[in-house]
Amino acid sequence: MSVKVAVRVRPFNKFEIEQNLPLCISMKGDKTILFDSTHKKEFEFDYSFWSHDEFEVDEKGYRRPLPNSRYADQKMIFNTIHQDTIAQLFQGQNCCILSFGQKLSGRSYTLLGTAENQGLVQNFVKEIFQQIAEKQNITTKYEVYTSMLFTFNEIIYDQLSPTDGRDLKIKENALQGVFVENLTKELVDSPESFDELMKKGILKLQKCQTLMSVLVSYANIIIQLEIKETITLDDQKLENLKLINFVDLVCSDRIEKLKDSKYQYLDAKIARPLSTLLEVICKVLLLSQQQDKKIIVPYRDSKLTRILQKTLNQKSNIFLYLSISPAINNFQQSLSTLKFANKIMKIKNDIISNIKASENQQILDLSEAQIQTQSQIIQSSIKQEFENKQEQELNRNTQYIQQFDKSEKIQSDTNIRCQAIISTKDGIIELQPLSQESCGQIFINNHQVKELTKLYHGDRVSFGNTTSLLIQYNGIEKPKIESNLTLIQKDTLDESENNQIIEEQNKSLKFDQD
Ligand code: ADP
Ligand code: MG
Q1: Which residues form the Kinesin motor domain (predicted)?
Q2: Whose Cα sits closest to atom 4 in ligand 1?
Q3: Residue whose C-alpha is closest to residue 27's, from 12, 13, 10, 39
Q4: DSSP string, 135-184
Q5: pLDDT tens for residues 82-122?
Q6: How far is the CA of 200 from the centre of ligand 1 (A)?
Q7: Is the pTM of this model over 0.85?
């Protein structure tokens, strides 16, 4: 659902040019500024269309913008605002297009245009038929029906009725919802056949205008398009209706301005549909945002809003076009036209700022939650890191302990393996490894010793990596040493034993440890 407001300013008309009336409108982006020598009123709408000047008329009579000009021509307006409207219509979003402003401000021009400058209605119809041609297939068929009616003084007039078509009644039932009873619906099969029907309706309207004098400006003219979609599946038929209402609204001028004061009693009755319409749009907007609140939309307060009910609700797209005169003499009227729609814009802006506020709150909540989560993550990662470090430390310690144990074991193994007996025989010192394991660990002058080996003066005997002996014969070439020496690496014997061995060694050998 969406409500869009667009304002459009027309060129000076003949009277305004003759009177040389000053311009009182300027536009900047989506802003419309109404000014005179002392006042400046600024309004912001969804769109502000400059159709005042900077245009040329082409060979076909079409008003197109001059190169690089800001003039908003008929097609440009349709293309700018209604890119998605028809696609959304086919998807089930009904549509209401309202044209509002003072008399001669350009309401009908925007909606219906002229033969050379076709308005929104014709552009819609062309696009609808184009989409139907693309969408239609064996199972899905479309039929387009059109009606034309107007309400004046709360009476409904059927403009396509072959008879009088006056004072139609509004009915409601479960099947059709709200509808105008006995309203003529003509099947149209092309934009051309639609144009023919429009001519017929407008002709009848002009007759009414003659009959009813100036009062036709105080009528709400409605053009309805009903697209019937029939989907055939096996033997079943499914029907969907898509509705679009174009409304050339009663002029916003107060009736007391009319010279003919005999109609003044109608003033309130004529103003009521407009105020009800505004109320309905505002309530629908509010309702679309506050589903839970019981907002009553006052459709029943006017025939106009009741007829439009199916296209003025939370499921539809609503477009309000404001037409304003560029001339200073219409300052007050233009001001009241702009103020009319400003109420809608205020609600829209409130809704937008509420949405933004709630989005911001959500973002805040989210970021708070994120911060919490982040800090939780950080805390847990710190904890994890700490635990990891502890574990690493523990592992390292365990490894260290294991290595230590291993080295201790190796050490003690080595001790066992490195055992050898050094003895003297006939003045010659000999070394006898004690076991097979010892052989791998005992070296004389870096040569491995595996069996009984003679030791000479200056030989260096190594046991594993830690202990070595330097053999010296104390100046005697062949000393006589009787005692046998058992060399067992330190720590494997108790100290007293060790001392004894060393003492014994010192008797004949100089014991040198690295
Ligand atoms: P309303 O329906 O509001 O009474 P009309 O749509 O009949 O007014 O416009 C009054 C006159 O101004 C018409 O002659 C119309 O062609 C002309 N007019 C209105 N809007 C434009 C526009 N945007 N560009 C050119 N001419 C315009
Ligand atoms: Mg008109």
Answers
A1: 2-347
A2: 104
A3: 10
A4: H--SSEEEEEEEEEEEEETTEEEESS-SS--BS--EEEETTTEEEETT--
A5: 989 999 999 999 999 999 999 999 999 999 999 999 999 99
A6: 21
A7: no
